[in-house]
Amino acid sequence: MAAEAERATVSISITVNGVRHEAEVEPRELLVYFLRDRLALTGTHVGCDTSQCGACTIHLNGRAVKSCTVLAVQANGAKVTTIEGLAEGDALHPVQQGFYEKHGAQCGYCTPGMIMTAVHLLENNPHPTEQEIRHGLEGNLCRCTGYVNIVEAIKWAAEKMRREARGERREEEKRGEHVSR
Ligand code: FES
Ligand code: FES
Fold first, then answer.
1. Which atom belonging to ligand 1 lies closest to the Cα atom of 69?
2. pTM (2 decimals)?
């Protein structure tokens, strides 16, 4: 009886990077292993498995969360974005590009989690101070870089995202002028 209970599975449906996935999972299966082992989205890394390092950070319904702290069943019905879902075609997300431009990665193990955390940070605070960036990264550990280039990468991305937002606003204003004529 106990063994049967252990083997019991639950049906879930999760939309990951815009694609809906239906699956049967054991109630104890962690979201990070669902993403890595079942969907082969291995860009989400496991550094500690105990909620310390942030390497497993993804977006769950638009919020950055450590996917080793979430059960797959808890994500039933949710929308998940992983590092594989950030770029649009060949166009890197500004935060990905910032890490490239400012050499924000060395071994790269922490990088997907850092980027997912940073994207959420900039979505909520487009003008972060250096202190706010460092504070926002408190849940993400890097064993290589000493954080200096990671912070520079996020500053670079913030500036790019602000420029892009200004450009979009100008385009909208132009379209508005055109319509009103
Ligand atoms: S693997 Fe999730 S916080 Fe380290
Ligand atoms: S780049 Fe190696 S752990 Fe961060």
1. 2
2. 0.91
